[in-house]
Amino acid sequence: MIIKNVKVYQENQTFKEGEICIRGGVFAENADAQENEEILDGEGCYAIPGMIDLHFHGCMGYDFCDGTEEAIREIARYEASIGVTAIAPATMTLPVPELEHILSVAAAYRKKAETEKAADAPEEMRAKAQAEADLVGVNMEGPFISKVKKGAQDERNIIPCDTEIFRRFQRAAEGLVSFIGIAPEEPGAVEFVHEVKDEVNVSLAHTNSDYEHAMAAFDAGANHAVHLYNAMPPFSHRAPGVVGAVSDSEHVMAELICDGVHVDPAVVRATFKMLGANRMILISDSMRAAGMPDGQYTLGGLDVKVRGNHATLVSDGALAGSVTTLPDCMRVVVKQMGIPFETAAACATANPAKSLGIYDQYGSITPGKHGNVVLLDEELRLKGVVKDGKKIK
User: Fold this and answer.
1) 3-state SS track over the chain
2) Which of 116, 132, 78, 114 is CA-nearest to residue 372?
3) How far apart are CA 150 and CA 132, in angstroms?
4) What are the pLDDT tens digits along the chain (393 aa)?
5) Which of 10, 176, 293, 391 has the highest CB neighbour count under 10 A?
6) Angle 228-254-252 (CA atoms, 0-180°, nearest 5)?
């Protein structure tokens, strides 16, 4: 495939007018079109790499924690259709055996999807599989978190950090767990970081930690912060807390929900200045209600009321994830919050790929990487999606 007449996003975070060549499902050096090769006119659109959401729970009535192949497949299909071509869904705080089951289903789905996408698979099967976002990891938001900052997590299932339980999770997932969340102020948490930091990315999640405990975890090897500002103490001039520790730890990357609900625009702008754009990752944190009408849904077994772009627990009104997709979050952060598009695009593509450790395969329009492209007009509205060199939208 040759995609002509587009503004191509470069690895140096600029756009350059040109064309994109995809052969054998991966980006290739530009070359003359071959016989019978598909030519796609990009009509002057921006062309960015396929987006990557490394923290969301579901969409279109399905949740990753439903623990079924159908749920993962429908989630993956919807995400790909909106330009999110690689996903690392998040788990909730559930009983350990239930989490093991969810992870084992994810591992089985990924193996099946790889078989379906193989070059020797039947063409119809391969086409359907290519229209699904690639499952590249799992983000475990619980169960090693704080009851004080549980948010929409079920307190009954919160447990202390446990190395063997984590390894049970990873065995069930066949290595698919990319992030494990902890509350560093809880007993044994820092020791846990020391023990598993070479096996998984350790993130600070749903924590009531002060600056000192957070720094101890980061110094021990934790390298990620889950939805910064949400489900953690506020950042203030005498109590910098987790946010201050993230700022002082240059190896740490931070998620941010830019749906216009979870974090004020002024704080978003300040955070980009404080951390630097290369450490920022846009996430959606979307729940099963994303893409669905207002109503009552569930998240982690808890009832959630959705009205507009707000999702809140029925029990206490706490924010319960979002109903905004990653492309919409990127559009909001640019059009309503004043972050340059060139910066925001990296935070939805290259940065999550680097955090997941898959930048050699995803996250930029570079020869040899997966041929995933999203076409956007001047208002950042979706105009087309190419997945592994095939137009799927």
Assistant:
1) CEEEEEEEECCCCCEEEEEEEEECCEEECCCCCCCCCCEEECCCCEEEECEEECCCCEECCEEHHHCCHHHHHHHHHHHHHCCEEEECCEECCCCHHHHHHHHHHHHHHHHHHHHHHCCCCCHHHHHHHHCCCEECCEEEEEEECCCCCCCCCCHHHCCCCCHHHHHHHHHHHCCCEEEEEECCCCCCHHHHHHHHCCCCEEEECCCCCCHHHHHHHHHHCCCEECCCCCCCCCCCCCCCHHHHHHHHCCCCEEEEECCCCCCCHHHHHHHHHHHCHHHEEEECCECCCCCCCCEEEEECCEEEEEECCEEEECCCCCECCECCCHHHHHHHHHHCCCCCHHHHHHHHCHHHHHHHCCCCCCCCCCCCCECCEEEECCCCCEEEEEECCEECC
2) 132
3) 32
4) 999 999 999 999 999 999 999 999 999 997 777 878 899 999 999 999 999 999 999 999 999 999 999 999 999 999 999 999 999 999 999 999 999 999 999 999 999 999 999 888 998 999 999 999 999 999 999 999 999 999 989 999 999 999 999 999 999 999 999 999 999 999 999 999 999 999 999 999 999 999 999 999 999 999 999 999 999 999 999 999 999 999 999 999 999 999 999 999 999 999 999 999 999 999 999 999 888 899 999 887 888 898 888 888 888 888 877 889 999 999 999 999 999 999 999 999 999 999 999 999 999 999 999 999 999 999 999 999 999 999 999
5) 176
6) 130
Tokens of residue 166, six digits: 């984590």
Q: Is the pTM of this model over 0.90?
A: yes
φ and ψ at residue 278, rounded to 5 degrees: -70, -10
Yes or no: say if 326 and 374 are a contact pair by the CB < 8 Å rule. Answer: no
Whether residue 183 contacts residue 160, with contact meaning beta carbons closer than 8 Å, is answered with: no
Residue type, 223: N
Which strands sit side by side in the sheet containing 310-313, from one edge to the other?
295-299, 302-307, 310-313
